[in-house]
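Researcher: Let's try something more involved. This one mixes different molecule types, so please make sure each is placed in the same coordinate frame as the others.
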Amino acid sequence: MSKGRLYIVSGPSGSGKDTILKEVFQKCPEIFFSISSISRPMRPGEVEGEKYHFISKDEFLKLIDDDMLLEYNQFCGNYYGSPKQPVLDALNCGRDALLEVDVNGAAQVRKVMPEAVSIFIMPPSYAELHRRLSGRGTETEEVIGARMKTALQEIGRACEYDYIVVNDVLSEAVDDLIGIIRSQRFKTERQINIINEVLKNA
Amino acid sequence: MSKGRLYIVSGPSGSGKDTILKEVFQKCPEIFFSISSISRPMRPGEVEGEKYHFISKDEFLKLIDDDMLLEYNQFCGNYYGSPKQPVLDALNCGRDALLEVDVNGAAQVRKVMPEAVSIFIMPPSYAELHRRLSGRGTETEEVIGARMKTALQEIGRACEYDYIVVNDVLSEAVDDLIGIIRSQRFKTERQINIINEVLKNA
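Model: All components are placed in one shared frame. Result:
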């Protein structure tokens, strides 16, 4: 059995990444979705183990010390990171695994797992990004401007990724992302078994 | 506009390659299918320009001399080859192009266009290959054995390809091949325009 492949997915706020990944998760239960560990307290409505594992800051620092994370970041005093072992276990079992990380996290993962395939989700245009980040029209131009700046900085690093999926029509973006993952399964290095199988009787 | 991508598709007799490509051709009219030039006379039922351009041996030799072919082979005294210019024209217009060639032709094309993506179509098993090559049961074991030998020699070179599609269920193999081609369109080097488009307003 060949090993699974690791997918790194990033996309700025306004790319619709979360909605896309939710659908991919439902349509492709064979893919292992990594759950981040996070050192901040649980918020109302959040469920342990759904999107995050909630741990203490000390526990997080121990994960860093023990090299148990594929990547991590600090944001507003809290730590976020992707536990390494569950991903490696999935890959070793032949399962594809998917990590949702930001551009810095993606760069860290690429260093330790250069064979990972990275995908960046893009909004279709500047105007549409602005529309999405404006929310329900209740935000000040200053808040929107700050969100735009962050999103555009991330988009500026899209070229570090292997693939770029443009999220104009949601269902198409979902199919595009699934198509990229499925097509990787036909890569020759993952089909060696079938070649050997056909040839061994020859 | 980014350039199109060249796909090289091979598969032994018994892989079902021709049937697959016929369906891909119908489903994906945006792909340019290269028509081979061939120096043998037209057979009953064949139509000029459908699967082949029929030209004289002298004309073929001139194509070789003028470096007008992406690849060529000689088989039973006849020349077969893929004209270069129509493929380059398609790629320059942003169209994907597809070449159906044998393993030797594929190796030749890779040398001159290393960016080409190559796909090998496989039968699902030795037993199924034997069944398909046995035809309607009217062939001698000697004929079948010779066909098997040729097919297995080609399969032995499958690892030279980027992707391997197993043709067990025809419709799935067609979707798999189309999926590989479509997913390549999301490669970052082909999405630079959209990145620039979004960023230029920033």
